[in-house]
Specification:
Elements: H1 11-20, E1 26-29, H2 35-44, E2 54-57, H3 58-67, E3 74-79, H4 84-91, E4 95-96, E5 105-108, E6 113-114, E7 123-124, H5 126-131, H6 138-146
């Protein structure tokens, strides 16, 4: 329905057409955001909120577990270049660490950078984001697996 920045051509009109035909629609998304944030984003992209009966998102399902500390509180965070990663950490009571040994788990929230810890430096991941090539993170993920990090 959208590419992350704008609605695909004709998508809002298609949803409106289906709604007028009595079709009930629910969003099923891999978004790390809560359901209401995902629906609000669709409104910003030109969709009518009343055309959807709700949303189910990966974030909506994962956040209660993160907030309860089910996996621990310190994570190595793969995130976006903007501030979404920091916001996500705060909203879920998590702390980022750049040291794999200090992390309770790895959290994949985005693919543009690994968020540094309190004194660490962010590591940009242009190869992963631009092409999907995992060469920049293969070693890190192998080590995380060896250490038993979820």
């Amino acid at each position: 329905m959208h590419n992350g920045e704008q609605a695909l051509p004709g998508a809002p009109e298609c949803v409106s057409f289906l709604y007028k035909k009595g079709i009930k629609m629910i969003i099923l998304s891999n978004s790390p955001q809560a359901e209401e944030n995902t629906l609000a984003r669709l409104v910003r992209l030109g969709f009518d909120r009343t055309h959807f009966i709700g949303a189910v998102t990966a974030g909506g399902l994962a956040c209660p577990h993160l907030q309860a500390g089910r996996f621990g509180k310190r994570c190595m965070l793969f995130t976006w270049e903007d501030q979404r990663g920091e916001t996500y950490l705060l909203e879920n009571g998590l702390e980022a660490t750049r040291c794999l040994e200090d992390a309770d788990f790895i959290l994949a929230h985005g693919t543009q950078r690994i968020l540094g810890g309190q004194h660490g430096q962010d590591e940009l991941l242009p190869e992963l984001y631009d092409t999907g090539n995992t060469c920049q993170v293969d070693g890190l993920l192998r080590e995380a697996s060896r250490l038993g990090k979820p």
